[in-house]
Specification:
mainly alpha, 78% helix, 0% strand, binds phenylalanine
């Protein structure tokens, strides 16, 4: 049977942008900016995105599109069956781990969407308590986690063109309009300027090695790097498409979404005299408080949590696809069955993560619960290692002529031909060294 593919360039682009734009942009980026001192962090983040992450993105793209196979087979076949295939295996397992806890947060957005529809955020509610009682209870988050994961599995079961592409094509433009509309509205609130200053006036005294490490970690997470997701999506991209264009367009949209999300959130937070430094609770505790007070807040809350949910689903489907494509192509089981299997595994692991805030909170690994452990392990360690190994693979194991051929579509894209030497230098030297330094620094501190 012919392999399913993206039906159009636009389809491939919105699917990739959908993978990149997610909770990382709407939930994680704003609170990291809040914790790390605003604009200075953003500048470092942008530099890392384009200097380090874009070449990694392109590397994954090259591996995926060159092989037109799932992540395991891609590394296996392009390396002539060597041990590099285990890197492929890792890039299949990691997204499953991430999907498990990602769908717990996705579940919280489902629950908060319900809450916003039933008008639960009024000025008099204690939002921190409300969030606390959701995450520590047993059933509500489990039900929401199930709904979220099921939605993911159903979309993936419909395949690349009929499921992932079709969903992303409708949802990504919608997401953009919603987030932009909220940002415009937030900017009209009295006192919004303070939030804008916070986002755009750099204070470099707050930057240290640790914030650089977390900016890099965030950039990896936000661009879905080191997980096999970009690789897998790239394997469905037409040989005629331009890798440079698709990669840069994804990186730019991802960055734009993060900045617009910042503009939707910070001005509103400052306008109501709240602090942006509430960490992971920013979106679920601080924002509902803002919604409870702002004019038309009930409506804005619904829009916001729709956006959060859509962003999360267009990312979770990309994580699920990595393992599903492996099962379908290597283990020869049907797509529907593969989705069922991955649903089941991620449901169990995710349920444990969800319960680790409540009934299982006594189980500690290091000084965090299971959820923290998985989050830390995957986004700070595995993702970085995955990215590092991928650039080493492309820069030092693949033949330069093959990478050139894939990047320039056989020498026919003149701009890419001109860019190739710079890219090759970044992939071979700059990326591995920079990742290694920042990674080791992050581990020590
Ligand atoms: N990039 C997604 C986000 O910003 C998360 C993600 C990570 C998606 C890894 C796929 C793979 O939320």
């Amino acid at each position: 049977m012919a392999r399913d593919n993206f039906g159009s360039r636009f389809g491939a682009l919105v699917a990739m942008a959908g993978s990149a734009v997610g909770l990382g942009n709407l939930w994680r980026f704003p609170y990291l900016v809040g914790e790390n001192g605003g604009a200075a962090f953003i500048i470092i983040y942008i530099a890392l995105c384009f200097l380090i992450c874009l070449p990694i993105f392109i590397s994954e793209f090259v591996v995926g599109r060159r092989s037109q196979k799932n992540a395991f087979a891609a590394f296996r076949d392009l390396s002539g069956g060597s041990n590099w295939k285990w890197l492929g295996m890792v890039t299949i397992i990691v997204p499953m781990v991430v999907l498990s806890y990602y769908s717990v947060i996705g579940g919280w957005s489902v629950d908060y969407l319900m809450k916003s529809v039933t008008l639960s955020f009024t000025g008099s509610v204690d939002n921190a308590r409300m969030f606390g009682s959701l995450v520590t209870s047993t059933w509500a988050p489990l039900v929401a986690h199930t709904v979220f994961l099921l939605l993911t599995a159903v979309i993936v079961a419909y395949g690349i063109k009929g499921g992932i592409e079709r969903f992303s094509k409708v949802m990504m433009p919608l997401l953009f309009v919603i987030v932009l509309a909220i940002a415009v509205y937030a900017l009209t609130l009295p006192g919004a300027q303070k939030g804008v200053d916070y986002l755009f006036n750099p204070d470099f005294s707050k930057i240290d090695g640790k914030s650089v490490a977390s900016a890099l970690g965030q950039a990896f997470f936000s661009l879905s790097l080191g997980f096999g997701t970009i690789l897998t999506y790239a394997s469905y991209v037409s040989k005629k498409d331009n890798i440079m264009f698709q990669s840069a367009a994804t990186a730019v949209s991802d960055l734009m979404f993060a900045l617009i999300a910042g503009l939707a959130i910070m001005p509103a937070v400052f306008a109501f005299g709240l602090s942006p430094e509430s960490g992971p609770g920013l979106v679920f505790e601080t924002l509902p408080h803002v919604f409870g007070q702002m004019p038309a807040g009930g409506f804005i809350a619904i829009l916001f949590f729709v956006a959060l949910l859509v962003a999360a689903v267009t990312s979770s489907i990309s994580m699920m696809e990595v393992a599903v494509s492996y099962l379908v192509e290597e283990k020869k089981i049907s797509r529907k069955k593969a989705c069922g299997v991955i649903f089941f595994v991620c449901w169990v692991v995710g349920a444990l993560c969800s319960l680790s805030f409540g009934p299982l909170s006594d189980i500690k690994i290091g000084d965090g619960n299971l959820f923290d452990f998985f989050d830390h392990l995957s986004s700070n360690v595995l993702m970085t290692l995955g990215s590092l190994l991928t650039v080493l693979f492309v820069g030092w194991r693949l033949k330069k002529t093959d990478v050139y051929d894939e990047f320039t579509n056989g020498g026919t894209l003149s701009r890419n031909v001109r860019l190739f030497d710079v890219l090759w230098f970044l992939i071979r030297y700059v990326c591995p060294i920079a990742i290694a330094i920042i990674f080791v620094y992050g581990l020590i501190n």
